[in-house]
Amino acid sequence: MLEWIYMPEAWISLMTLTALEIVLGIDNIIFIAILCGKLPAYQRDKARIAGLGLAMITRILLLLSLFWIMKLTTPLFALMGQEISGRDIVLIAGGLFLIAKSTLELHSHTIGEEQEMASSKAGAGFMMVITQIAILDIVFSLDSVITAVGMADHIEIMILAVILAVGVMLLASGAISRFVESNPTIKVLALAFLILIGIALVAEGLEFHIPKGYIYFAMAFSLVVEMINLYSRKKQNG
């Protein structure tokens, strides 16, 4: 069962897959940061840890259900000449949910409702945030697990890569969340990223393949430009 430990190529697969899982988890971290920012300050870290914990559990459970995962790629029906599988349905539904949620969050941000919502119904808000994180975890995890299956031959490697990636994300998520919350323009940019990712998920579900490299390059380029703007404003104010 652990014979892969003595195989150099298995360790290369583990490192590559862990790095890929971290990259694919960026959108998850952004989504969690945005949602947790709506909670009272004393609940944010708890929700963030719970959200990433759910992401890890979801991915491991999906990895342990590989037979079911593979069946999800089997076409169920055709719509306007386009074959639709279970995976496509999950991606389309998740993408639409992400677009709708991010648009509502963007609207809420522009009219300044965050503080009112954070201060009212804290308990109900916490459970609502965790529920929304769990829903999107399924979508993000499904895509991540299907990628992992194609890159490694041993399920132990896949599970270990997920655990390592979530560990790194957990360490980084606090700083990312605080940075997003303390910079309103970054928060708007993050919400725009989530809308873009939602559109990409819907397109993927409809078999319109948008290379993820293009999306991540656009995100990185926009972030660099915004960081320059932040630095410039800081210099002017200083």
The tally of helices reads 10
First and last CA, distance = 60 Å
- Which outline best applies? globular
Quaternary form: single chain
How many strands appear in the DSSP assignment?
2
Query: What portion of residues is helical?
Result: over 70%
The structure class reads mainly alpha
Count of discrete domains: 1
Low-confidence stretches: 114-124
- The proportion of residues in beta strands is under 5%
CA radius of gyration: 19 Å
What profile does the largest beta sheet have?
Answer: 2 strands, antiparallel
Q: Give the averaged pLDDT, no decimals.
A: 77
Order of strands in the sheet with most strands:
1-2
- Along the chain, the helix and strand elements come as HHHHEEHHHHHH
Keywords: Membrane, Transmembrane, Transmembrane helix
Pfam families: TerC (PF03741)
Protein name: Membrane protein, TerC family
Organism: Campylobacter porcelli
Report on the architecture of this protein.
The protein has helices spanning 8-24, 26-36, 41-63, 66-71, 86-111, 114-119, 122-149, 155-182, 184-205, 212-237; strands at 75-79, 82-85. The protein has 238 residues and is mostly helical. The chain has one domain. Strands 1-2 form a two-stranded antiparallel sheet. A hairpin with a 2-residue loop joins strand 1 and strand 2. Helix 1 runs parallel beside helix 8.
